[in-house]
Specification:
Elements lengths: L5 E5 L16 E2 L2 E2 H10 L5 E6 L3 H6 L6 E5 L6 H14 L4 E4 L9 H13 L5 E4 L5 E8 L3 H4 L9 H6 L3 E4 L12 H11 L1
Parallel strand pairs: 1-4, 1-6, 4-5, 7-9
Antiparallel strand pairs: 2-3, 6-8, 7-8
């Protein structure tokens, strides 16, 4: 099945800033954050993948039953680039026109946000697209057109797709409020976020 945009959730990190916890297993609406975000992604694209480090049994378990592709990242200790290289290879093999990189520790990004970003990128399919806050501060997710996926294969280290976005400046697409920047990396982040939800 062809899709205008695949979505990858890079989930091969160690979440060290959680000081022993796992941010992607924190509960939201009765389920792990990773499953919660994957379900939202599936409402926007028929092609969703999750990158996981070798041996990430608990993260893999919370994805059970979902029609997502789990991509193993044997060199996950290198950083984000290792996940993005694996994701780029998967995207090149899939019948899709673009690849969205959606960080799985951002609980405020909705399925409507995913769909809106995909539609905006389709309007100018040769451009990179980047979500922004309502006051235009760059955030996530980011969409990379298929033509640039081979460039992702050369990424290295823990810089993500920064070099690609520097060479191909993305259009910014504002989302409501601050949710394009709201990621939960520490216990304090989670505490503040949960307090704001109550």
């Amino acid at each position: 099945m062809h899709a205008p945009c695949a979505i990858v959730l890079p989930a091969a990190g160690l979440a060290r800033r959680m000081r022993g916890g796992d941010k992607l297993l924190e509960q939201i609406e009765g389920q792990a954050l990773l499953r919660h975000v994957a379900q939202r992604a599936l409402q926007a694209s028929a092609h969703v993948a999750v990158t996981l480090r070798v041996g990430a049994a608990q993260r893999a378990a919370v994805l059970a039953g979902l029609p997502v592709t789990v991509l193993s990242v044997p060199d996950a200790d290198e950083g984000m680039a290792a996940s993005l290289r694996v994701a780029a290879n998967w995207g090149l093999a899939a019948p899709v026109d673009a690849l969205m990189i959606a960080l799985p520790d951002m609980p405020d990004i909705t399925s409507d946000d995913f769909r809106t970003l995909i539609a905006a990128q389709q309007a100018r399919p040769d451009d990179c697209l980047r979500a922004a806050t309502s006051d235009n501060r760059p955030g996530h997710p980011v969409i990379v057109p298929r033509a640039l996926l081979r460039d992702m294969l050369a990424l290295a280290g823990d810089q993500g797709a920064r070099d690609i976005l520097r060479a191909h400046p993305p259009r910014l697409h504002p989302l409501e409020g601050m949710r394009a920047l709201t990621d939960l990396d520490t216990p304090e982040d989670w505490q503040a976020w949960r307090k704001a939800q109550s």
